[in-house]
Amino acid sequence: MNPTLTTAPAAASDIPALVSFVNSVYRGENSKQGWTTEAHLLDGPRIDAESLAEMLVAEGATLLMSRNEVGELVGSVYLQKQADVMYLGMLSVDATRQGGGIGKFLLGAADDYARRQKCSRMKITVIAVRHELLAWYERHGYHRTGATVPFPDNPRFGIPRQPLELLVLEKEL
Fold it and tell me: What residue stretch is flagged as signal peptide (predicted)?
């Protein structure tokens, strides 16, 4: 774990900063500095303020924000309890800081949060053509379930440049 990072739940007042942060990680020019960019697969924003506000008030949901020692937002992760399973989504690490352990730190924080919520498994969905990202999650204990879900047909999540589907991965806690 990285002792210089802190994690706290997001509040409604964090929405503008989070929208800017998440979009910079997933789409646009800045995202291309990191290895997790989706800019080559999707056009449009990853999230908007209205969608993020809905996510934050969803039952069983939280969004953890991670800051470095000087208070800069360097990562975030969305979590939603679904019975005894914790759904993990929108894991975001500053594109210029990827590869430095922030993602691993956030996965650990998410696992700890899920255990405190009495969850026995973590669940994620990953775009099927994101081979390097799938491999990263598999190195961190996730396994493919064989299940797939269609990519959302809603421009609020981005406009695919090709047909996309999501693979479902899980991890026992």
Answer: none
| Helix (H/G/I), strand (E/B), else coil: 167 | strand
- Which domains does the chain carry? 6-124 (3.40.630.30)
pTM for this prediction = 0.93
CA–CA separation, 76 vs 107, rounded Å? 10
Q: Please tell me the total number of residues recorded for the chain in this structure.
A: 173
Q: What is the 8-class DSSP label of residue 27?
A: S
What burial class does residue 80 get, using C-beta atoms within 10 Å of its C-beta: 0-12 exposed, 13-18 middle, 19+ buried? middle
Nearest residue to 24 via CA among 36, 14, 15:
36
Q: Give the residue from 88, 57, 92 showing the smallest Cα distance to 171.
A: 88
Residue labelled with tokens 């080559």: 40
Number of other residues whose CB lies within 10 A of the CB of residue 1:
9
Per-residue pLDDT of 23-70, as tens digits, reads 999 886 777 887 778 888 888 889 999 999 999 999 999 999 999 999
